[in-house]
Amino acid sequence: MSLSSRHLIGLQGVPAEDIQSILDTAATFREVLERPIKKVPTLQGKTIVNLFYENSTRTRISFELAQKRLSADTVNFSTSTSSTKKGETFKDTVRNIEAMKVDMIIVRHESAGVPYFLTQVSKANIINAGDGRHEHPTQALLDMYSIKEKIGKIEGLKICIIGDIAHSRVALSNIYGLKALGAQVSVCGPLTMIPKGIESLGVKVYHNINEVIKTHDVLNILRIQLERKAGTNIPSLREYHNYFGVTAERLEKYNKDILILHPGPINRGVEISSEVADGPYQVILDQVTNGVAIRMAVLYLLGSMN
Amino acid sequence: MQVILKGLNIVNPIQNLIEKNDLLIKDGIIAKVGSISDKEFSDSKVYDFEGKYCSPGFFDMHVHLREPGREDTETIKSGCNSAAAGGFTGIASMPNTEPTVDTAEIVKSITEKSKEHLVDVFPIAAVSVNRKGESLAPMAELFEAGAVAFSDDGVSVKTASLLRSAFEYSNMYGAPIIDHCEEESLADGVMNESIVSTILGLPSIPTIAEDIIVHRDIAVAEYTGGKLHIAHISSKKSIEAVREAKKKGVKVTTEVTPHHFTLTDESLKSFDTNLKMNPPLRTRDDMNAILEGLADGTIDCIASDHAPYASEEKEVEFIYSPNGIIGLETELGLALSELYHKKVLSIEQIVEKFAVNPRKILNIEVPKIEEGEIANLTIFDADLIWTVDKTKFKSKSKNTPFDKKLLTGKSLAVINNKQIFIDGKFSEI
Ligand SMILES: [Zn+2]
């Protein structure tokens, strides 16, 4: 199995075969993760830099764990402030990392375009761990893996992404990936949180949560950023919960067979009620385990291309 | 000292005429227009410009010089050199320096520092003290010191009430208010808002941020009778608003930058920070409206919004990059390639937008190509094919998205203040 690109910047334009390869490879690694000794020597001797400009414990730990399971050497470079603000340009930082002769760079940054920029200036394989509001491909892949694990397929499913689509990096990656595999994708949220022109990507826009629950097979619920609560996007978290929150009553009433995903961390009582977060519909904790398997698959497939 | 320029196609914008002739220039004054034989003036330096266009010197009314404050990126002198290389004999400089051009001393120091140069610099002073939008800068004093217009460029004149006062006050001197039109509360982004910003995941600015202020400014200009010039217009609706206002007789003029008539937001897919500017690159629809506006005269002139930045300021993540690109040395080539050769504008219209209209807006006399007049000329080859090479720029900064671009049309020489700039060098004539 091999992929058509040596980087994973996003799922836009990634062929279905590549996505399928990653999901299949992840299934193999998922078995490894169930073994008592969870380590394979696949990436022995490879050096991977985790370049995290944004705080994200979950994604970083998931990548680190995946790297350790594959026996790679890892270097962590985490900082919440940009190098720019310290007087060093981003180009300088990249040159420094290049000088360390690394094989792969995992990068997360608040500015969209940084992973793409790295592909232009570095010889390493670049994996995007989230850039601005652009893409977060491994999150979408693990979401897709989790759906497939639970339902057995993706093709033909009706899947809705709910929440602040405009400020999300997960939404776009999910839209591209799910559509490539033949799902019908829609988004739902207050119209202040739906970005301009999203319909032209072939997704339907909803703002009635009950209708969405009634008509869909899967809900992927995005976290509402608490720091945005007093903004102009929504009047209050309470109102958001009342009109867009996924609650047990709604699921009971409109669709008992629906599957619930959430990329975490969850805000109980805002986008999702506690009962749903802990209840039988969700696969939230499976998503975490699957995340490690997906990242192992991506690291393995890209790492074995050089 | 005298020089002969031979074989010119002289563009006379007043009579809207192109005539083939030679020029004799003596001590910086046009001594003869007509057929001149070398033998007649054997002690002259002769330049052969067979078939090249000669126009009244070109003028760029929107240039950011970085002196005082950021001389590492552009000085008055390096900016003037860049202007000469681009085909300009005059520029108007924007006041957002450090400190702001809001005192008579700074205005005078700019004209003082540029007075030996071929290129004339006309300072634009701030509308408000320190461009803060709170209280009016000393406009009478600034005008007397040589300011030709007022602008808080970088941001809009902050409030309608300040703008009203600015119009009423500047009306006493006939000086225009040049406004950078952008509603602050909608401008929290780094590119134009469209499906492209959605796909790229970059925070965006909608065109209504520009349109709202354009409408506000037109309303206030109409009410006060003030002279409004809209800087770097970029949106379709804003152009429509200006067209309507002009029909009603409001005193409004506008300019467009070369990047807004050559590039769209689609190009941002490269995440190149040299494509980050304000106003941001818009959609193809907006660009088509710009071309229409240029052709029908709604857009009066072309101006570069030349904004020099150091490479370390631009070689950063997209969202941290400052806005702006340099433009003086690519402007004419882009205009000839994209407007003249694509039949949007004729040579006469190009001359009107580069030489005539900016001066009219700023109440500066348009140079005449007639005997007895000061030789203030731009000589250009509309068909010369060349490749942009930023390492050869006279500007101290290199932040351009047009490096290595093939262009058709280039300035060959400029003449003004008893100097000629040709083949990359200045000499006395
Ligand atoms: Zn401006």
CATH-defined architecture of the largest domain in chain A: 3-Layer(aba) Sandwich
Low-confidence stretches of chain A: none
Assigned CATH superfamily of the largest domain in chain B? Metal-dependent hydrolases
Spatial gap, N to C terminus of chain B: 6 Å
CATH topology description of the largest domain in chain B? TIM Barrel
Question: What is the CATH class name of the largest domain in chain B?
Answer: Alpha Beta
How many domains make up the coordinates of chain A? 2
**Which stretches of chain B are poorly predicted, pLDDT < 50 over at least 5 residues?**
none
What is the level 1 CATH name of the largest domain in chain A?
A: Alpha Beta
Name the bound molecules: zinc ion
Task: Give a quick rundown of the structure.
The complex is a heterodimer of chains A (306) and B (429). By secondary structure, chain A is an alpha/beta fold.
Could you describe the 3D structure shown?
- The complex is a heterodimer of chains A (306) and B (429).
- Chain A has 11 helices and 9 strands.
- With 306 residues, chain A is α/β, with parallel strands linked by helices.
- Chain A has 2 domains: 16-135 and 291-303, Rossmann fold, CATH 3.40.50.1370; 137-287, Aspartate/ornithine carbamoyltransferase (Rossmann fold), CATH 3.40.50.
- Chain A has a 5-stranded parallel β-sheet with strand order 7-6-5-8-9, with helices on both faces. In chain A, strands 2-1-3-4 form a 4-stranded parallel β-sheet, with helices on both faces.
- In chain A, helix 6 links the parallel strand 5 and strand 6.
- In chain A, helix 1 (16-34) crosses helix 11 and helix 2 crosses helix 11 (284-303).
- The model of chain A has no long low-confidence stretch (mean pLDDT 91).
- Chain B is of the alpha/beta class and 429 residues long.
- Chain B has 2 domains: 2-54 and 370-428, Urease, subunit C, domain 1 (Roll); 58-361, Alpha-Beta Barrel (TIM Barrel), CATH 3.20.20.
- Chain B has helices at residues 76-86, 104-114, 139-145, 160-171, 195-200, 208-224, 236-248, 258-262, 284-296, 311-314, 331-340, 347-361; strands spanning 2-12, 17-26, 29-34, 45-48, 53-56, 58-63, 88-93, 120-125, 149-151, 177-179, 191-192, 204-205, 228-230, 252-256, 301-302, 377-387, 406-416, 419-422, 425-428.
- In chain B, the strands form 3 sheets. In chain B, strands 1, 2, 3, 4, 5, 16, 17, 18 and 19 form a 9-stranded mixed β-sheet that branches. Chain B has an 8-stranded parallel β-sheet with strand order 6-7-8-9-10-13-14-15.
- In chain B, helix 2 runs parallel beside helix 3 (139-145), helix 4 (160-171) crosses helix 6 and helix 6 (208-224) packs parallel to helix 7.
- The radius of gyration of chain B is 21 Å and the shape is globular.
- The mean pLDDT of chain B is 96.
- The chains are: A alpha/beta (306), B alpha/beta (429).
- The A-B interface holds A 12, 82, 84, 89-91, 109-114, 116-117, 131-135, 166, 169, 172, 195-198, 200-201 and B 193-195, 197-204, 206, 271, 312, 315-320.
- Bound molecules: zinc ion (ZN).
- Zinc ion binds at residues 153-154, 180, 231-232 of chain B.
- Zinc ion is lined by residues 153-154, 180, 231-232 of chain B.
